[in-house]
Amino acid sequence: MDRKISRQDHWNNIYETKDTTKVSWYQQNPETALKLLEKYKIRKVHKIIDIGGGDSLLVDNLLELKYQDITVLDVSETAIQKSKERLGNEAAKVKWLVEDAANFKPTEKYDFW
């Protein structure tokens, strides 16, 4: 009997079993996103959401650059927990959403996705 694994279980398993720095999508420096923030003149008070941000270092960079309204959304609670642990007290400055982006219905308007 085939049991279909949920998308959330799939991603939790990846973040529980793999070294985040060894996955194909890992970026030490998320320069594309950072360049877009600059190009589109996203101010420090603008609402930013990182979709699929999980254990990404973009949130670290946004905090370091003093952005004030940051949301990270990821289907993997494990990935989000890793980010929170890495950020320590800084994690309290971020809104964390454990949700599947495919079903996400924002309750806020964001200036930068």
What tags apply to this protein structure?
113 residues; alpha/beta; Rossmann fold; 3-stranded parallel sheet; 3 strands; 34% helix; globular
Descriptive overview:
The chain has 113 residues and is α/β, with parallel strands linked by helices. The chain has a domain at 43-113: Vaccinia Virus protein VP39 (Rossmann fold). It is built from four helices and three strands, in the order ααβαβαβ. A three-stranded parallel beta sheet has the order 1-2-3. α1 packs across α4 (77-87). The N and C termini lie far apart (40 Å). 21% of the residues are buried.
Residue fraction in strands: 5-15%
CATH class of one domain: Alpha Beta
User: What's the helix-strand series?
Assistant: HHEHEHE
Total helices: the number is: 4
User: What is the fold-level CATH name, i.e. the topology of one domain?
Assistant: Rossmann fold
Radius of gyration: 15 Å
Count of DSSP strands: 3
N-to-C terminal Cα separation, in Å?
Answer: 40 Å
SS-based structural class? alpha/beta
Shape: globular
Fraction of helical residues: 25-40%
* Weakly predicted, low-confidence segments: none
- How does the major sheet shape up? 3 strands, parallel
- Please name the CATH architecture of one domain: 3-Layer(aba) Sandwich
Going by CATH, what is the homologous superfamily of one domain?
Answer: Vaccinia Virus protein VP39
Mean pLDDT: 88
Main sheet strand line-up: 1-2-3
